[in-house]
Each structure stands twice: as structure tokens, then as C-alpha cells.
Write a structure and sequence with these properties.
heterodimer, A: about 550 residues, alpha/beta, six-stranded mixed β-sheet, 21 helices, globular, B: about 325 residues, mainly alpha, two-stranded antiparallel ribbon, two-stranded antiparallel sheet, 6 strands
Chain lengths: ~550, ~325
């Protein structure tokens, strides 16, 4: 009998029975007839598109629903021996920890040590017990070196770990996580998943993790629960989930599973290791490395074309609190018309600073920057929406032209708050574009900073279409004086390698303020560990990064 | 950008001291500023506050507070000079002004304003040093048993203010990035948006507090007595400064008069008190360890940078010094 089966015999860490819930004044129920059990020590992945009910289910399991949000609830939720509907989140805190998407709003103290200690202090624990618990959880999460730091000096990944430590310090038997890696770079995201697996294996903490990037965590999960329209649509093993998603909801397929299904290989793999093992089986021939195609350099070779951005040795220094720090260190970069460029690199590498400098928000302290009109969408599209009617945000012909470009001309009278997340983002793009266009032609450079945070696959696909459409529109070139038109270049700063592989022809990889790699997307995204797609990690073939390319490469050898 | 007054953990004595000791020490300097009007003593208190900040590593906080304090001092001098016409040394007669009536600028009013301005500047620098060097979490933990809800409100404010400042900066950037064809963003819509965002964040933070167990009716947690080996030093310096200030006041060390003529006393009591107050700024000085105790209990001298340099210099000159 497996250990998991033994654990399954014990009282479940979480038991949900016939749960239905509606937020106050909501037209539709957020959850309908949800029944679910999480065994002690089990790692369960919660999959589903945006607004499918994942977050609400997690909030019900930690008591925020209905105690904090109100609304109408029916059914039963038990966390260990506690009734989560009758008991408030405070009482449940000892039995369940909760980690949300945005680490910024999950810390309330000034220093890390005080933040982690707060739940114990509020519970009335003795000072000695608190000191030990803080030390233990800091060691478990590898953050003892952060204890004396102030929370405003931490990176997103560090802050997320601190929030996790505060959620775990009471030693709950269940931890709920709502897209905890959505704001992290691939390195920090993978580290967090690895950490969860270790907590799960070594300390027996049951994990219920809601996540969009399934390829990141499917291999770590014991079980997958998929949700759709507030109901559970699938509950089973990861391999069975992939077979189910193939027919029921292809947007939930992982890239490796899609590669296998396109190539007609069974069974579908739950992770890179699994996929490689399957490919080593007799009867399946893995293409040799040299069989890969030559990758064409996407940069324009026409010397007559005027670049839309030309940076030569630019340095940018920013005030980071105590001292000025060089964030960009002599960047050389040229982007031509019509290019689709992914700007990648870990948090703090200088991606956003480069885009903000191009848009005129920062002034280089050295070097030469030549750039025409730039429309930049920052990381929070909501910041652009300040009025209650789309038409009031974008008045006149210029506004209408911008709305047409993003396909929102029908929504003139809508309230931006009533639009979907994707539509709000497109509206923000239109606001950045308005007045920078020549008729229906876009400005020279359209820049998007981390546009896929918290997005599901379907919305990312929509964004890929939008980028392709933007890159196909005419634009004013850098020396606007010539008034000649070219295609617009689109530059997207992103951590999402799969998204980069889907839209970009070229990838520029930044590391600590310098360009460390610049080349065709297929080449850059197949030549590393972290900044490589799942298909690239499975096949390890230069130039093969998407499931379609992978299936073609496998097909050549079969 | 991080506020210059934000707390920054550093390994200095002032940061290591318990909040009570740090407050007593900086409070004593501020108390001198409010007890005395003599510019000599006020300058000494200012020197003490600046020294304390610099030795504690809060250079940026001191610099910014000094700039703000001196600007405020200048404002007080100007306002006092315009509003108060007392004093015998008239420097300028500016005639009749609406609301103010006859305005005569006198040397005495300027000096009186300078005294008030210096007092404000000292208080500002001391407050900046407190803010940059004293861990607010430890202060709030100290206050929590006395006023739990107020302490928590203060915690939230101290957390939400920098978050709101970051939100405001982001919204300003977004308004600058709007295309010229989009409706311009006035201050009112921006403020509304900032308020709405802050409320959303406040709701999220409130949810976090709920999850941390804020609503629990737990018995008040006992706190460790936050002790430091520097506490006695700061309490002692605070005590000495306060006792000397009170005694000096009784002995006429605050010998300063502005009207009808300026008279600044420079008697021994004033000078001694000023020297003592200025020297109190050295309290956060970290003493270098000069001896190391080995495992067997023997004590050996530690090489320090100064003596090494001396030895190096002595060696170059061909003189052996130990």
C-alpha cells in the first residue's frame, strides 16, 4: 500500500461537499455543486481558464468566502476537523495557509522577521515558541538571510517566499496557493514549485495549487482537478488529465503533451523527464541534434530600412533608495520595422527600464538613443483606465482609429470595468496608441511590458493574434521627418517562454543590464535551461521550440 | 524610489538599541531644543542630532531632513520678520501692508525667528534619524499591549503609505504614456483612480490580516524584552543630557533675549551645556573591539586598520613601532 493510500485513509486535509456560492450582487454563481477531497500530504493542481472558479474555491477553503466577501453559500467545507463555513479565517489559520497572486498585498509589517512572527503573536504564542517557529520556517524556505531585511527591499520572488513563510509559520496541514508564480520570472517560479514539492514530501503539507502555467507544475502534482464555469469538470491523475484536456479543453494542454499528441505518441507526458523517457522507448526515434534546421535570422538585412529603435551604448541609472544604481549598462540594440521581439531576462535584468527609456520615462546618462513615436503599455493596464466610458477615454476620430486597431470600436459606450480582462488590456493599448497613429498606421514601436501576467492560454492566444495584427500595420519611422511608412515593430518584455515562442521572431535576453543574447527566437529559446520552452527541453534540438516544430522534427525521423 | 526616511536595518548601536532607549536618547535632544531658546544651545542640539544620524548611517535621511528643516527655518524667519515689528534695530521700513499693517523688519525679529526655526530644524532632523534608524515593528510591538488596535492601524498606515506612493508614481507614468489623442487625465480622475486602487489594496491587506488571525480574541502575547548591549549607553546619555539641561536652565544657561535688543549669553554654563549636548551626538559611535578572547581564555590584541597603517608608515620610514 502506497504512503499516499495510507494517508488517504486518514481524515482529509480538505473536504468539500456540494458547495455552491454566489458573490454579493452577482448575476451568476461562482461555484456550483463542487465536491472535492484533498488527502493529507497530497499535492493537487487546480486547473482551469480564468473565471472558472479556482480562486473562489481556494477562498472558500480558507474561510475568506463567505466570511470576508459575503454572498450566499451552500454545502459543506471542512478543513481537517474544522467547519470552514462556521469558522472564520482567523481560527482556520492554524489549519490552512493561503497565498495569493500579488505578494505586495500579503505583507503588513516592515521587516521580514516581524511579518513571519505576526500570526503567532496574534495567536498569543509565547516569545520562545515564536522565535523557534520563525527560525524553523525561515530555514525550511531558505530565507534566514532575509529575516533582518525590510520588506520593501525584497524582489517579487523573495516577497512571495516571505508571504509563504507567514502562511506556513503556524504549521498548517494544508496550503492553498492562487497562481503564486504568475508575477515571478522562470527561475523564481520554478524555485517556488520545487519548494512546494519539498514541503509536501518532507513535511507532509497538503498542497492545493491553482496555476495557469501547467507545464511548470504538472510533474509535481499527485492529482489534477479541472474547473469550468464554477464546476469540477475533471478530477484524476495528471496523465489522465492530459488525455482528457486533449479533447475537452485543448487550451489546458501542456506544450509537451501537445507535441506528443501532434506526433501521435502515447502516453502523453506530464513533464520533461517523462517525455524524454517515452522518447527513449524502442520504436520511437528521437531526431539527432544535427538534424535540426538552420534558423533564419529575423533581423532585417535591408540596409536601406531605417530602424524604429537604435540604441548605442546607453546607460541608465535609477535611484533604488539608498544609492543610484546602473540598471542599463551600455545597451546596443537595433530594432527594425515589422519586427516582433521578445525582451527576456530575470527580474531586475533591465527589461522594463529599457522599454521605459525608449518611451521617454527615463533619460539615458550616456550613449545615444534614436527612437520615433513609442506606444508603451506598462505592467498594469488598469492604470490607463480612469473614466467610466470607453468613448470618454478615447474621444474623436483619433480615439476611434485606435479602438479599430484593437478591435474595440463596438464598445464605445461600455464601462471599462464591464469589459473582460483581455478587452481592458486592448483598451489600454488603444489609449497608448491614440494620436500616435498616422490614419490607421501605428507608431514606429509598440511596446508591451509583461502583458501575460495571470492570463490563461486562451487569452494569451488572443494576445498573440493582436501582436501579429499590430506588427502588420504601417508606422512612422524613427526619423519622423521623412514621413515614410513601414510596418510597426512590437517589443514585448516577458518572462513567459511559451508565449515568447508563440509570438516572437527574435529574442533579446538581458542579464543585469546588458544584452547577453540576441537572435532568432527558435535559437535563443532552444539553447538554455530556464529560458527554453518545454518542447525545447524535451527534444533538445536547436531551433525547435514549439509543439508544431517538434512534431515536424519527430515526423521527419519516423 | 524608497523614501529617505524609511527604516533601514543597519548593524549600528542606535539600530540595535531597544526602541525605548533610542526614543529616550533622541527625545532628550529634542527636549533640549524645546527647553532652550539660545541659538548656541540650539545649534549644539542640531549638531548632536546630525552627528547621531551620520554615525548611525542615516546620511541620506539627515541630508534631506536638514534641507527641509533649513527651508522651514527660513520660512519661520521670514514670517516672524514680517509679522513681528518689535525690536529696536530696524533694518527696513516696508510701509503699510494689507492685513499686516505697518511692517518694520527688525534685527531682533529675525533672530527670534531664527531661534524658532532652529528649534524646528533640530526636531525634524531628530525625527528623521528616528524614522530611519528605529525599527517600527519593534515600536509597535511595544505599543501593542497598550493599544492593540491603534498599533495595528499604525502598522497598516506605515505599510500602505509607501504602497500608495508607488501606485501614484505608476498612475503618473501611465498618464504620461497616454497617446496625444486620448482624453487627458486631470488631477481629479487620477486622484479618484488612486483612491479606488488604494481601497482595493486595503481590502486585500485586510484579507491578509484576517488570514493571519487578526480577528482572533487571543490572550495578549507576551513579548521578549528587546534588550541590547547599547541600551544602557543611550539611557545614560539621555539622562545626563536631560539633567544637565534642567540644571542649566536653573543656572541661567538659556541666557538669551530677543526684545527689545538681542542679547546672547555666552557664560560658562551655556558653553558647558552646549558642549555636552553636542558631544551627546557621539553616543551612536561604535567602538571597535581592540581585544579578542581566544578559546582558552587568553586575550590578544586585534589588528586594526589605523594601527596597521601606522605600522606600515613606520616600516617605510625604517622605524619599528609596536
Amino acid at each position: 500500500m502506497s504512503e499516499l493510500a495510507i494517508r488517504r485513509g486518514a481524515a482529509p486535509a480538505l473536504a468539500v461537499e456540494g458547495l455552491g456560492y454566489s458573490y454579493p450582487h452577482a448575476a451568476h454563481a461562482a461555484l456550483e455543486d463542487v465536491s472535492l477531497e484533498v488527502a493529507p500530504g497530497e499535492f493537487v493542481l487546480l486547473a482551469g481558464r480564468s473565471a472558472s472558479g479556482k480562486s473562489t474555491l481556494l477562498k472558500a477553503a480558507c474561510g475568506l468566502v463567505p466570511h470576508f466577501h459575503g454572498g450566499e453559500i451552500e454545502g459543506e467545507v471542512r478543513v481537517g476537523a474544522l467547519d470552514a463555513i462556521a469558522t472564520g479565517p482567523g481560527e482556520l489559520a492554524a489549519a490552512v495557509g493561503y497565498l495569493a497572486q500579488d505578494p505586495e498585498t500579503q505583507v503588513v509589517s516592515t521587516t521580514v522577521a516581524a511579518e513571519i512572527e505576526l500570526p503567532l503573536e496574534l495567536r498569543g504564542d509565547e516569545p520562545g515558541d515564536r522565535a523557534r517557529a520563525v527560525e524553523e520556517v525561515a530555514l525550511a524556505l531558505a530565507i534566514p538571510h532575509l529575516l533582518e531585511r525590510t520588506v520593501d527591499t525584497l524582489s517579487g520572488g523573495e516577497l512571495q517566499r516571505v508571504a509563504l513563510a507567514a502562511a506556513l509559520v503556524t504549521r498548517p496541514r494544508l496550503i492553498l496557493l492562487d497562481e503564486p508564480t504568475s508575477q515571478l520570472d522562470p527561475v523564481a517560479g520554478d524555485e517556488l514549485i520545487w519548494l512546494l514539492r519539498r514541503l509536501n514530501e518532507e513535511w507532509g503539507v497538503a498542497v492545493l495549487l491553482a496555476e495557469h502555467r501547467l507545464e511548470r507544475c504538472l510533474a509535481a502534482a499527485d492529482r489534477v482537478v479541472a474547473m469550468e464555469g464554477g464546476r469540477i469538470s475533471f478530477d484524476g491523475a495528471p496523465a489522465d488529465f492530459l488525455a482528457w484536456a486533449q479533447d475537452a479543453d485543448p487550451a489546458l494542454e501542456t506544450p509537451a503533451a501537445r507535441l506528443f499528441s501532434l506526433a501521435g505518441i502515447e502516453p502523453l507526458p506530464v513533464g520533461v523527464r517523462d517525455a524524454r523517457q517515452t522518447l527513449r522507448r524502442p520504436g520511437i526515434s528521437h531526431p539527432p541534434r544535427q538534424a535540426s534546421r538552420r534558423v533564419r535570422d529575423p533581423r532585417p538585412t535591408d540596409p536601406a530600412s531605417t530602424p524604429v529603435l537604435s540604441a548605442r551604448g546607453i546607460w541608465v541609472e535609477l535611484d533604488r533608495g539608498e544609492d543610484l544604481r546602473d540598471v542599463l549598462k551600455g545597451i546596443d540594440l537595433t530594432i527594425g520595422p515589422g519586427e516582433r521581439v521578445a525582451l527576456m531576462g530575470r527580474n531586475g535584468a533591465g527589461k522594463s527600464t529599457l522599454l521605459r527609456t525608449a518611451a521617454g520615462l527615463h533619460e539615458p546618462v550616456a550613449g545615444k538613443l534614436e527612437v520615433g513615436s513609442v506606444a508603451l503599455l506598462t505592467q498594469t493596464p488598469g492604470d490607463y483606465l480612469v473614466r467610466e466610458r470607453v468613448g470618454d477615454e478615447l474621444p474623436g476620430d483619433e480615439g476611434l482609429a485606435a479602438l479599430r486597431v484593437v478591435g474595440l470600436e463596438h464598445a464605445l459606450d461600455a464601462d471599462p470595468r464591464d469589459l473582460s480582462g483581455g478587452e481592458r488590456q486592448r483598451l489600454a493599448v488603444a489609449i497608448a496608441l491614440a494620436g500616435r497613429m498616422e490614419g490607421d498606421q501605428l507608431p514606429g514601436l509598440v511596446a508591451l511590458d509583461e502583458p501575460t501576467r495571470g492570463m490563461d492560454r486562451a487569452r494569451k492566444d488572443d494576445l498573440v493574434d493582436l501582436i501579429a495584427r499590430l506588427a502588420g500595420q504601417g508606422a512612422l519611422v524613427a526619423d519622423g521627418s521623412t514621413n515614410s511608412t513601414h510596418d510597426a515593430a512590437v517589443v514585448v518584455a516577458t518572462h513567459d517562454v511559451e508565449f515568447a515562442a508563440a509570438f516572437a521572431a527574435r529574442v533579446v535576453l538581458l542579464g543585469d543590464g546588458v544584452v547577453i543574447a540576441d537572435g532568432p527566437a527558435e535559437e535563443i529559446l532552444s539553447g538554455g535551461w530556464y529560458f527554453a520552452t518545454e518542447v525545447a527541453r524535451v527534444l533538445d534540438l536547436p531551433g525547435v521550440v514549439t509543439p508544431e516544430q517538434g512534431a515536424a522534427a519527430l515526423g521527419e525521423t519516423r | 524610489m524608497k523614501s529617505p526616511f524609511a527604516y533601514q536595518p543597519r548593524p549600528g548601536p542606535l539600530q540595535s538599541a531597544s526602541p525605548g532607549a533610542a526614543v529616550a536618547y533622541l527625545g532628550a535632544i529634542v527636549a533640549v531644543a524645546f527647553l532652550y531658546s539660545s541659538p548656541v544651545v540650539l545649534v549644539a542640539a542640531g549638531v548632536a542630532a546630525i552627528l547621531a544620524g551620520l554615525l548611525a548611517g542615516a546620511r541620506r535621511a539627515v541630508r534631506v531632513a536638514l534641507k527641509m528643516g533649513l527651508a522651514l527655518a527660513l520660512l519661520i524667519v521670514v514670517v516672524n520678520a514680517l509679522v513681528v515689528s518689535r525690536g529696536e534695530t530696524v533694518l527696513a521700513r516696508l510701509g503699510g501692508w494689507p492685513l499686516l499693517g505697518q511692517v518694520d523688519i527688525t534685527f531682533e525679529a529675525i533672530v527670534a525667528g531664527l531661534s524658532g526655526g532652529l528649534r524646528a530644524a533640530v526636531a525634524m532632523v531628530a525625527a528623521a534619524v528616528y524614522s530611519a534608524c528605529v525599527d517600527p515593528d519593534r515600536v509597535l510591538r511595544l505599543l501593542r499591549p497598550l493599544a492593540g488596535r491603534s498599533a495595528l492601524t499604525a502598522t497598516l498606515v506605515s505599510r500602505m503609505v509607501p504602497v500608495a506612493a508607488a501606485d501614484a508614481a505608476r498612475l503618473r507614468d501611465a498618464s504620461r504614456l497616454r497617446g496625444p489623442g486620448a482624453a487627458p487625465v486631470g488631477k481629479a480622475p487620477l486622484a479618484r483612480r488612486l483612491l479606488a486602487g488604494s481601497l482595493d489594496r486595503a481590502v486585500d491587506v485586510a484579507a491578509t490580516l484576517e488570514l493571519r488571525g487578526y480577528s482572533l480574541d487571543a490572550t495578549r502575547a507576551r513579548n521578549r524584552r528587546a534588550r541590547s548591549r547599547y541600551d544602557r549607553r543611550f539611557y545614560a546619555v539621555a539622562g545626563i543630557v536631560l539633567v544637565a539641561a534642567i540644571a542649566g536652565k536653573a543656572l541661567g544657561a538659556d541666557d538669551f533675549q530677543t526684545y527689545p535688543e538681542v542679547e546672547v549669553g555666552l557664560g560658562p554654563a551655556t558653553l558647558a551645556l552646549s558642549a555636552l549636548v553636542a558631544l551627546s551626538g557621539l553616543a551612536p559611535l561604535k567602538r571597535r573591539a581592540t581585544r579578542r578572547t581566544t578559546a582558552d581564555g587568553t586575550k590578544t590584541a586585534l589588528p586594526n586598520r589605523k594601527s596597521s597603517r601606522w605600522q606600515e608608515m613606520a616600516g617605510r620610514r625604517g622605524v619599528a613601532r609596536v
